[in-house]
Every structure is written in structure tokens, then in C-alpha cells.
Amino acid sequence: MWSREVGLKQVEQGSRHPVENNSSISTGEGPLRLDLKRPSFKHGLFREQSGKSPGTERAIIVRSEVSQPTPTNSRKSAGMGTLPATPGKREDGSPTQALGQENGTTTWQDKLPASEREALELEGWGRLSETQVNVMRDSKRRAKEASDAALPRLRKRFAKLGFDEDQLNVLRHIAEKAPIVIHFNPDRRMGWFTNRTVLKAFLSDTHYRNKYETGVSGAWNRGRDQKERKLFGGLYHQSWGPPGWERPKYGALKGLPVGNTFFSIFGSCHFELQNDVRKRCTFGYGVTSDDLKQTPGTCEHFAHVLARCGKDQIRWLVAVSEKRSFAHWSEPHLAIEAQIHGPIQLKKDIREVRFRAFKPRKTQKRLQQLAEANGFAISSC
């Protein structure tokens, strides 16, 4: 079989036509070689599929059997499809979450004093990597400053809308109860050269994964990379940037436990996350890539995000927080983006999956299989 060495830069950018390079490349697991087989795009790399079709062969990246010493810092990133640094690999070759709570290995938190570990657990950050904890700490600090500054302005706005001080409890509703959802299209293909769908990928996986791991998203990699650099102060880009699994996943804050959100344009089905996941979420108004100057909020410090909502959205949120029955019928488009930091384990972090009733019965049956396999509820919306 024909093989050549390829440049690491082209590998990490997911290039479909890697540039040849005469030098050997070490990634800590041996050099990379180029083989001709039918590919599919997954986890930022080309991976082998069974079967061959004449005229459709393209280059994919596989690892040779040559072993080399693991470098002390093997993190490298070009902002797209990165190689996992610390994670191990499952039998199918896909990266694990590389956190002690997820795969039974030792984590950086195990080296901390017991008091610090307990503090992280109280914050809801016990399953985060060190980089993710730093992002959440910095985001919480900046969110508190922005929220405290916006609160007097928000009080005046509430007064103009006829609300009193007690109705600012809408902030408590958002902090404690408002559902967080992730929209997805179950029938979307995982790549150009495969019939494998997003739903099939869920059925064979243990986690919901971000676009750096799967190569599938409604946005393009470089735009998201720049967005995360600005929103989170470059903390996700220190030391050559993080492995793909460390980046946030994207969802939306939902006012009601039924119906859809503004972000349903990204998929007619959605996962509703468990309530404790909100402690490791940040929030922005609208699609945050449209306004990178805003400061992300947290569930505890949200006044500056709420202050950007329209008067109809504020009225509706107040009605929801007071459990008024008419709120069901007057839902405006609530466009609040959620960035979820840390793992989303299907068996642990998903409360329910909802789907549109018009979905094909085949899709509905597979969604039912997914719900039964992972122990969460399923319903139509």
C-alpha cells in the first residue's frame, strides 16, 4: 500500500489534500502515514470506512505502529479538528473525555487539597478540566462586575414597564429553573462521504460532543475559534490551545419546559439538560458571534444579559417566573445562547429529548432507542 509522510498542520486542519513533507512527524503516538482508502470526516480527521468504490478513493490519516516517547506537552491546535492530547481512545478509535469521573483515570483535581476539591464540587465544577475551571472562574468574575453595573439600569426599566422590585425574581428563576437545551438535526449526515447520521452517532457514543470532535456544526471552525478567543479572554488558547473535547458545546436558555426556542433553526429536536449543568454554563444575548464585545453571564450573574432583552421578552419572562397560565400563548423569540463547559454525558446530563411529531417513524424509533439506552425521557413538542 502506498504511503507518504504528511505535515501536521494539514492533519489538524482536516485538509482533504494533505501537503507532502519529507520530515517525520511525532505526535507522541508514532509518526503519521498516508494511506489510500475511502474516508469519512470524524473528530477532525479522516477515518477509514468499510467498502471501496472505484474513483472515490481519497487520502486518510492513520497511525503507524512505530512507538515513540510521549512528549511532556503534546497539545497542538490550528483552531480546527484537533488531535486529543490527554484523552485515551475507545475501541473504535474515538477520544474519551479524559476526566477521572468519565473514564476512571486520575485527574488534575486529585492532586488538590480536599478543601479545594470540595469547593469545586460546590461550584458544580467537579468534572471540569483545569482550563475549563479557569474559564469559569474568569467568566464568573467578569459576569459579576457586568451584572452589578447593569442592575440599577434594569430596575429602572422594570419600573417603566410597571413591575416592582419583587418581580426581579425573574433573575432567580433563570438562575435556578429555566431549562437549558441543545438543538440538533437527527437526520443530518456526519460527512460528505458517509450515510452515518447524527442520530446514529449518538446511538454509538456515550457523550454529546462539540464540532471540534465531530467536524459537524452549523458554523465554520475559524469563526467559532475567534469567537471563543474573544468571549473567554484567550484562556482556551493558552499553550497552543486545548484539545477539541475541552471546548464548550452550544445550546440555548429556554423560558418554558415546552415549545421551541429561537435556536430551533439549528435543529427541530432538542436535548433538555439536567438542572445541575447550568452551574457550568455561560450565557450571551442572541448569537454571540454577532456581538463579541458582550460579557458572558452566568446563572448567578445575569442582569446585564437580561437588560438586553426586549420589553416583550421581559414581560414574558416575568409571567413565566410567576407561573401565569397565559405565558404559554405569548412566547416571544427568546434568543439567549448558552455555552456549556465540560462533558455532556448522555446517561448523566440529559433529562429529556423532544422531537417534532412530523419526524419520520424510523427517526422516532431511533430516538426512542437512544432514550431507553441512556435512561432519559422522550416526548414530542
UniProtKB/TrEMBL annotation:
Protein's name according to its UniProt entry: Uncharacterized protein
Source organism (scientific name): Klebsormidium nitens
Disordered as annotated region, ranges: 1-113
Comp. bias intervals (Polar residues): 65-76, 94-109
InterPro entries, sorted: DUF3626 (IPR022074)
